[in-house]
Amino acid sequence: MLPLDSDNTVPAPKCRLCGSDLTDANDSEAHVIPNALGGRLKPKGILCRTCNTELDDLADNALVKAFGDWPTLLDIPRDRGKNPPKKLETRDGKTVRLEPDGTVTRIDVLYDVVPIEEGHEVRIGAGDMTTFRQLLMRAAKQFPQLDPKVAEEHARTIGIDDDDHLKMSLDFSPQAVFGGIITAIWLFLIMKTGRAFMDRQRLSQVIKTMQSYGGTFRYLIAGLPGLLGPDVPIGHKIIVRSVPSTGELITYVEILGILKVGGVLATAQPSCIPLEYIYAYDVVGRRDVSADFSVDASIFEKQMWREVGLGPTDAEALQEYFREALETVFEQHYRARFTQTESDQA
Known about the structure:
By secondary structure, the protein is of the alpha+beta class. Helix content is about 30%, strand content about 20%.
């Protein structure tokens, strides 16, 4: 039951960071996992708009940036809006624009005059028609025999050569991702329990600690020990479960099937009553699959949680894991997008 004020009205919910009353004007949807990464959980009644933006600046924006341009390359389904086009470079030094549909177009400005036997060859390139036409007018002044209108009719869109590759980057260091992991867990627990386990000051402190050296979190590259369920290659998971015998509260967050982080969030008095919350979402299939997952307590509760997986200092092993994960998760999904398109068109 909701508590009532003395006049039998339900009190307005308050922002869990600043304490201000939440109204229709200042309430916000607090994406547990950022919208830009395909997050769908977006509870209201937790953060005012100002504090939601503050939390983005503190941790979530870095988490989004850590995935680089992959959300656009994979065209990850968003809760709202579309993936924006991205300006990238290729390994051969070309500048291109990447569209969510996979189209790659060269946009670097080119104005090159090459002497040939018949006179001169003028090569012109630009990422938009305004710049392209300006370059045509420049060429017409230099070579009066050039007809800009005829030249424009022969313009064509150019991509990149088959042997060239896009420069794609990821940064899954604690500085980049652990703060966003903490905010996801904080919001998830409020959504599930109605309680904020950390106030503004404590949340900020924990985020900074995790970002600086990782704290008690580790990279669980094999997934959460004891978690049972179907294979969801590109999905999100948030698991919160206690270990009754030790009082440890274990949290695990998986984002897009490739970033897997977990560890001890807190320690309390041992209890015979376990706490467990499981959330799983198939990003590509756009469906909640939480009911398909469970935790095997016999495996989960025997782990040494401060030693499971890899730590931030295990740089070589982490680099190898993320390299393989890119090939088996992201790159396979990217190729499958266009294999399916070509099959549909055949």
